[in-house]
Specification:
- The termini are far apart.
- By secondary structure, this protein is mostly helical.
């Protein structure tokens, strides 16, 4: 029998924060509800009020990551001002910064099955794709991006940005080249010269 309390004022948020810290420091394999309960100072059964199982915890953690990334992308777009190219670059920069600062969380987010996922995860991922999709459609309407299927172009731009993020982290072949590669991405997709 444990003498740890069952109740905790903000247990869900505390568990997610501890899960993110564990993910960052030790990897996804080390995440367990029992260990998180111990770290939060509650009984081992307490996390089950918020997460039915480990997968539910991972989905919530991925959803929280998508929410944070979406907020960072939205703020970057807003702060970049009215110039489309600046907003496209700011979107890429926010994405690359997030991915290089928190690679384990980014990996979890993009390996999560968002199609058919619980509402929170699907909604959070959908918000990111919607914001980027709106930017793409706006760029196409302004003649800044090539015509065609905006969803396909969104996927292509996001895949390119994700590729840059994977290549510029510490120890990678493109380490230190994020700014130049993001400039090239914008130039490549908007018809400018690059390289």
């Amino acid at each position: 029998m444990t003498d740890r309390p069952y109740h905790h004022g903000h247990l869900r948020d505390t568990l997610l924060a501890e899960a993110e810290r564990t993910l960052r420091e030790q990897g996804v394999e080390q995440l367990s509800l029992r260990d998180l309960a111990r770290q939060a100072g509650v009984s081992h059964a307490a996390p089950r009020r918020h997460f039915a199982d480990r997968q539910a915890l991972l989905d919530a953690l991925a959803g929280a990551g998508f929410t944070r990334l979406t907020n960072e992308v939205a703020a970057a777009i807003k702060d970049a001002g009215p110039d489309f190219r600046a907003r496209l670059r700011a979107t890429g920069a926010a994405y690359v910064r997030f991915a290089t600062e928190d690679p384990a969380l980014m990996e979890l987010m993009f390996t999560a099955k968002t199609a058919g996922a619980p509402g929170e995860l699907a909604t959070a991922a959908g918000r990111l794709f919607t914001i980027v999709g709106e930017l793409i459609r706006e760029g196409q309407q302004a003649g800044q991006l090539p015509p065609g299927d905006p969803e396909r172009l969104r996927l292509l731009i996001m895949a390119t940005t994700r590729g840059i993020a994977g290549m510029v982290g510490p120890g990678q072949p493109g380490a230190g080249q994020a700014d130049a590669l993001l400039d090239d991405l914008v130039a490549l997709f908007t018809g400018g010269s690059w390289g």
